[in-house]
């Protein structure tokens, strides 16, 4: 009997303690939901399905913004997954953060009913409303006629002011150009000839480390560094998944063009010669960035945002700009005389994803008010310039500038985590700010931008008579109203034949493109690849792309 | 609660003809309540989630939920088995599962026996402790080490070059032929020490007098291993083998996911990766569930077959 009593007692203690445990958790949750510092600051959560670096919890500018707007957002980023995997997992769990940017999983979020329609709210928030024209807002409507997300990056305030080429290009280290006396490099053959002859003359860096003449990143979704160059080489813009012929408005498949074959044949030759890094196809993104950060890699294809912020800062901190290890873009096409479209002016409205608010958010109005506040010039300057007198100085004319020390600290990752808070995946402006003098972001301020460049890049720009990266590669007008087609192909899922074909094509290309480059017999390898490629029914995909192209042109015609 | 009760219940179990009386139920009230708790736990956490299997027979949309999604019968299974890449994942999973099973299984037994032969207690403990440490590393770390060690400038290539076995670095991850052995090696390295613990325990429970008797009969070390140690741990070996056969299809997810790349994807993708890729990434939860059901069913079949074989040969078995 005694034993029984004891066991009953034990069980009840256990039960009570578990219950108590739950209770505590509940309490904590509500606490973090409303008030933390005691000053009535509301805290939201956000998940961005893209890799990013988390900032410290006691970040200074985040705190300033919190005091001004009454809201603080805890941001989390993608780690070790693809965006659609992360989003798929969220949908399966049914629990969402307050804000979300779903990347290529955005449409899935909408289809799962996870997002809040913004139509009824937008008119109340003038700054948000002003981001887009009516036509653009209409482009964002889903098949139920409602708007669910706000693209963050396509808005230009006043006139455009772009100094960086934030996109894809053939990049080359300035030391290669300097050694050759800053020649004009216009075709793919010239580019590889230059790299070859440089590497022959200078096989190592100053400290004796061997150069890696050309590397290709092709891990997972980042394999664009390998696969989509044929569209640019033929002088088309970055539609990403197909070429659009602007005259006939027909879809062209860039995987099977003669240029594609020439491009991969060139890579194959260079691979045989030992110019292409033999680890290209097995390296991870981290290994790739580590390689670039040592300054060993002479050239590669990549998107600026994919390497510049990580590898660029590392090169700076090691003082490798003295050796000319920074990268500049080159205007390369397959033949001379083709107008390249690596860079386009005008913002690209990516209608396929953006910042959205989820059904889990308990106060949609406060959330939107915060987004609205972030777009006010004062907060916008805090986000992208920092604190006046600390992160930047103001001239009598009202122009912002940074001292060399301020520039160095701004590139320091520890400082970025503890001080800077740009809420980088919330809506924002580029272009010129409301004062008419300064750019909305530091890299758009011509003087500031040029002063902040590494010395080797400055020397290189000077030699080519350029002021900015954009001058190096040239610019063209924004393509037609269909642009960019990738915003559609990104949303394709296996629920349609075209989407299934698109997925299979991706799988085949991931496997066969490296094989083609490494093949000892290129022609045989190419034929094998083409056979495998055809077996995915690419026509299904192209047909759906054509239908979308027609739809977009029809929509656009309504506004003319 | 007394010894009398226990004896009685034991008697009941061995003699099925005895009916359970109310009196007995009353007597065993506490035991019944306790087992009811376990049953409830099992139902909630093991059986209720199985209701989700219904997704495999629906065109499941998260918006409509389980109740309102369209019912489509076996269409998802048809789709699954007409997909050549799924068939490849079955092959890969089975192949890697079997290779891993054999490699880790044999290595663990060999290692346990070797360790047992060490007479110095201190050294034995040190070796054992070090050998099972890798078990506590996560796969992400192990794959990181592997990736580094096997890279062009990694230690393996360095050694091969220094020994003049190769003149150019071997790119281990670019050849589909190397992938399965690499995975098997990683598994062996990570799990051998850990798996050996249970065999070591089994070996210690062997009656020392058997060894003495063997010595008197003139058995050397090798004979003692062959005629005393191995037969002594045979039941343990059988049980573990049976349990592991059921696990063959769990050939892994992390290691293949982390080490795989485009060049080797035709041999690296397992069923679990397929589920992630087509089920989660493409939001086709139905096909993911279908693949999961297939995996579970095959596992059950495998374990039943293995158990039957064990039964027929008069070996130790699970059920």
Give structural notes.
The complex is a heterodimer of chains A (about 550) and B (about 325). Chain A has helices at about 1-35, 60-70, 85-95, 105-110, 120, 125-130, 135-140, 175-180, 190-200, 225, 230-235, 260-275, 285-295, 305-315, 365-375, 375-385, 405-410, 415-420, 445-450, 455-465, 470-475, 485-490, 495-520, 520-535, 540-555, and strands at about 40-50, 70-80, 100, 150, 155, 170-175, 210-215, 245, 250, 295-305, 325-330, 355, 395, 400, 430. By secondary structure, chain A is of the alpha/beta class. Chain A has 2 domains: about 40-160 and about 350-445, 3-Layer(aba) Sandwich (D-Maltodextrin-Binding Protein, domain 2); about 170-340 and about 455-555, 3-Layer(aba) Sandwich (D-Maltodextrin-Binding Protein, domain 2), CATH 3.40.190. Chain A has a 5-stranded mixed β-sheet. Chain A has a 4-stranded mixed β-sheet with strand order 7-10-6-11, sandwiched between helices. In chain A, β8 (about 245) and β9 (about 250) form a beta hairpin. The longest helix of chain A is centred in the N-terminal third of the chain and has 33 residues, at about 1-35. Chain A starts with a helix and ends with a helix. Chain B is mostly helical and about 325 residues long. Chain B folds into 2 domains: about 5-70, no CATH class; about 85-310, MetI-like (MetI-like fold, Orthogonal Bundle). Chain B has a two-stranded antiparallel sheet. In chain B, α5 crosses α16 (about 285-310), α6 (about 85-115) runs antiparallel to α12 (about 220-245) and α7 (about 120-130) crosses α10 (about 175-205).
């Amino acid at each position: 009997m005694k034993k029984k009593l004891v066991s009953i007692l034990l069980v009840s203690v256990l039960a009570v303690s578990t219950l108590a445990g739950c209770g505590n958790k509940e309490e904590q949750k509500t606490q973090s939901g409303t008030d933390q510092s005691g000053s009535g600051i509301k805290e939201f959560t956000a998940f961005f399905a893209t890799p990013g670096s988390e900032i410290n919890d006691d970040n200074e500018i985040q705190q300033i913004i919190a005091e001004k707007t009454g809201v603080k957002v805890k941001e989390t980023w993608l780690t070790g997954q693809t965006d659609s995997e992360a989003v798929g997992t969220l949908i399966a769990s049914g629990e969402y953060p307050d804000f979300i940017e779903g990347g290529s999983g955005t449409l899935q979020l909408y289809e799962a009913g996870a997002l809040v329609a913004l139509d009824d709210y937008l008119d109340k928030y003038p700054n948000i409303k002003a981001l887009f024209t009516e036509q653009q807002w209409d482009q964002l409507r889903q098949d139920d006629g409602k708007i669910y997300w706000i693209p963050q990056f396509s808005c230009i305030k006043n006139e455009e002011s772009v100094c960086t080429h934030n996109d894809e290009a053939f990049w080359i280290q300035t030391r290669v150009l300097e050694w050759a006396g800053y020649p004009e490099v216009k075709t793919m053959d010239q580019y590889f000839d230059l790299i070859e002859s440089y590497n022959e003359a200078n096989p190592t860096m100053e400290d004796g480390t061997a150069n890696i003449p050309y590397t290709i990143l092709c891990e997972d979704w980042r394999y664009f560094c390998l696969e989509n160059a044929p569209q640019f080489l033929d002088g088309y813009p970055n539609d990403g998944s197909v070429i659009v012929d602007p005259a006939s408005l027909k879809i062209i498949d860039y995987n099977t063009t003669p240029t594609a074959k020439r491009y991969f044949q060139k890579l194959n030759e260079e691979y045989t010669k030992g110019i292409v890094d033999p680890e290209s196809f097995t390296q991870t993104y981290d290994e790739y960035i580590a390689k670039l950060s040592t300054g060993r890699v002479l050239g590669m294809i990549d998107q600026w945002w994919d390497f510049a912020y990580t590898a660029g800062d590392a090169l700076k901190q090691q003082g490798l700009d003295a050796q000319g290890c920074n990268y500049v873009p080159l205007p390369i096409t397959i033949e001379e005389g083709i107008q390249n479209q690596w860079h386009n002016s005008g913002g690209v409205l990516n209608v396929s994803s953006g910042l959205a608010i989820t059904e889990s958010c308990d106060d949609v109005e406060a959330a939107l008010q915060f987004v609205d506040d972030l777009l006010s010039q004062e907060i916008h300057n805090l986000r992208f310039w920092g604190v006046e007198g600390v992160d930047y100085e103001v001239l009598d004319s009202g122009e912002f500038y940074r001292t060399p020390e301020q520039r160095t600290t701004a590139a320091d990752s520890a400082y970025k985590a503890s001080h800077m808070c740009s809420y980088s995946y919330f809506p924002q402006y580029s272009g010129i700010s409301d004062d008419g003098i300064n750019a909305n972001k530091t890299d758009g301020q011509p003087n500031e931008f040029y002063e902040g460049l590494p010395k080797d890049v400055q020397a290189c720009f000077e030699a080519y008579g350029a002021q900015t990266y954009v001058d190096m590669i040239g610019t063209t007008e924004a393509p037609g109203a269909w642009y960019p087609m990738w915003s559609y192909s990104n949303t394709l899922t296996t629920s349609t034949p075209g989407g299934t074909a698109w997925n299979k094509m991706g799988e085949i290309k991931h496997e066969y493109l490296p094989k083609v480059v490494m093949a000892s017999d290129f022609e045989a390898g190419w034929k094998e690849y083409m056979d495998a490629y055809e077996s995915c029914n690419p026509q299904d995909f192209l047909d759906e792309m054509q239908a979308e192209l027609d739809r977009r042109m029809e929509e656009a015609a309504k506004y003319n | 609660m007394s010894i009398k009760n226990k004896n009685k219940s034991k008697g009941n179990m061995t003699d099925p003809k005895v009916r359970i009386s109310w009196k007995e139920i009353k007597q065993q009230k506490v035991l019944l309540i306790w087992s009811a708790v376990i049953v409830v736990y099992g139902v909630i956490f093991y059986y209720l989630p199985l209701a989700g299997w219904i997704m495999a027979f629906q065109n499941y949309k998260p918006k409509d939920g389980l109740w309102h999604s369209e019912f489509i019968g076996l269409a998802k299974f048809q789709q699954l088995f007409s997909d050549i890449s799924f068939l490849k994942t079955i092959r890969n999973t089975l192949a890697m599962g079997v290779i891993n099973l054999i490699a880790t299984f044999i290595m663990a037994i060999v290692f346990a026996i070797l360790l047992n032969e060490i007479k110095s207690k201190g050294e034995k403990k040190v070796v054992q402790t070090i050998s099972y440490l890798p078990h506590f590393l996560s796969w992400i770390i192990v794959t990181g080490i592997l990736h580094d060690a096997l890279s062009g400038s990694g230690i393996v290539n360095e050694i091969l070059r220094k020994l003049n076995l190769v003149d150019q670095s071997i790119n281990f991850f670019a050849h589909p032929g190397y992938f399965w052995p690499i995975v098997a090696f990683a598994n062996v390295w990570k799990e051998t020490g850990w798996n050996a613990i249970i065999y070591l325990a089994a070996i210690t429970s062997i009656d020392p007098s058997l060894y003495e008797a063997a010595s008197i009969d003139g058995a050397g070390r090798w004979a003692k291993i062959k005629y005393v140690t191995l037969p002594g741990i045979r039941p343990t070996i059988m049980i573990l083998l049976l349990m592991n056969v059921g696990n063959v299809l769990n050939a892994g997810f992390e290691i293949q996911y982390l080490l795989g790349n485009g060049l080797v994807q035709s041999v690296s993708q397992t069923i679990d990766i397929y589920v992630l890729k087509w089920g989660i990434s493409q939001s086709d939860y139905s096909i993911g569930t279908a693949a999961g059901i297939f995996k579970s069913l095959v596992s059950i079949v495998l374990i039943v077959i293995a158990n039957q074989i064990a039964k027929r040969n008069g070996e130790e078995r699970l059920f």
